[in-house]
Amino acid sequence: MTHTVLVTGVSRHIGARLASALAADPGIDRVIGVDTVPPPSPARDGGAPLGRTEFVRVDLRSPDIAQVIAAADVDTVVHMSLVSGPAQSRSAMKEHNVIGTMQLLAACQRSATVRRVVVRSTTAVYGSSPHAPAVFTEDTEPVDVSHSGYAKDAHEIEGYTRGFARRRPDVATSTLRFANFMGAGIDSPLTRYFSQPVLPTVFGFDPRLQFVHEDDAVEVLRRMAVEDHPGVFNVAGDGVLLLSQCARRAGRPAVPVPSPAFRALGGLARNAGLVDFSPEQIALLLHGRAVDTTRLSAELGWKPKYSTAAAFDDFLRSRGTVGIAGDLQVAVVDWLSGLATRW
Prior knowledge:
The protein is of the alpha/beta class. The chain has a domain at 4-182 and 212-237: NAD(P)-binding Rossmann-like Domain (Rossmann fold). The protein is 42% helix and 16% strand. A seven-stranded parallel sheet has the order 3-2-1-4-5-6-11, sandwiched between helices. Strands 7-10 form a two-stranded parallel ribbon. Strands 8-13 form a two-stranded parallel sheet. α4 links the parallel β5 (116-122) and β6. α1 packs across α6. The protein is globular and about 55 Å long.
């Protein structure tokens, strides 16, 4: 029985949608959403409606989160507050992700009421490498562990989560490794990449990509929040798409460039604020990644509504045609085309 659910990261799109879905469940007494900033207003800012969710402004790095859990007799915690974008410095991002998770799990460990903990992770923990297996299962060891960025944070977070599960075996602890989110409401480095007028690719590489639709992600999180499913689970839509297939579906010309030029372009685009070409993003667009979701399907008796291809197509329908906007993008396209020609 789930009585009081605490959702972190409620000011972000998926966290807000999850809180809304849980708040609509008459079997749940209270839903408490926490974040460092208030959620966007549905009327003014286009944010997801939170229903009867109670918002509490808390920084997970502070001990205040323990007071919130204790005061509300929280029995279920869904940790969604992981930063993957470049909105803040790397040191601030690491503190938020890793130190924040440590404080949250410490509060859960001390709590006498918490009986279920769900942690959002990412398939980026497997890395992207030419030596990687064709498909990763939950038991596959990463062959190229990231030494920086979001993937490294997720790897550390999973380590702390495993330690928590060992110390509190009475708590059903679930770790969900999500593929890249896709959908109408998703704004991520990858969706911004596919929204560019020209898609730079790496000469000689056509990586396999895998997506999960936001509707399916929310449903998996909702199920995990109201049922006990301890363990680690990959979450992704069925099938894969090659990057070249994505470009054709998006109606975007793909311009292959040498790997060093692609990395240089990534730095230029990142500095210009066009796309976040982080090291993880660059590795993904070189080598790709695919995961097996058999364990999740067997555990929940459930299949996603959207395949990888259907999730990507829904994202494209929601965005429509994106034209070249501004002289800076025109300059980037001209520079990229000239570089490809010289190559």
